Amino acid sequence: MSVQTPGLKKTLDEHINLLRVVKGLIIAFLITLPCFLGFALFLTYTDFPEKHTYIAVLITTVISVLVASAYSTRNVKSKGWMNGCFVGILYVAILYIASSIVFLSFHIDIQVILSVIIGAIVGCLGGIFGINLR
């Protein structure tokens, strides 16, 4: 008698649904881009201090990751927190790489570390929320 072991794809699908994660990331950036463009216009035409831009980026990140992770875990059977966390971390990583390329500065400071932690926590919360939306 032979015992069948589940394949890697099935194991990954049980823990992290990659297609749903990618769709969640797309949704996150579809939320992020208009928010950033609107904020850029706001900064251009007002005297808003640029030192507060990190707060606007953080708020946009939280909203985008929360919605995206909830969406990506909506039809997942289990491990919603893990899928959501994965969405949050990937979102922050992509955002960091894109901003580092634009500003030509690849350095990790406390804001980057906080962004990753916040992205992971908010992703977990969105994943938990999304899996319970069924």
UniProtKB/TrEMBL annotation:
Transmembrane segments annotated in the record for this chain: 21-42, 54-73, 85-106, 112-133
InterPro entries per record: DUF3792_TM (IPR023804)
Keyword Lipoprotein applies: no
UniProtKB keywords: Membrane, Transmembrane, Transmembrane helix
Keyword Cell membrane set for record: no
Highest taxon listed in the record's lineage: Bacteria
Pfam families in alphabetical order: DUF3792 (PF12670)
NCBIfam families associated with the record: TIGR04086_membr
Record's protein name: Membrane protein, TIGR04086 family
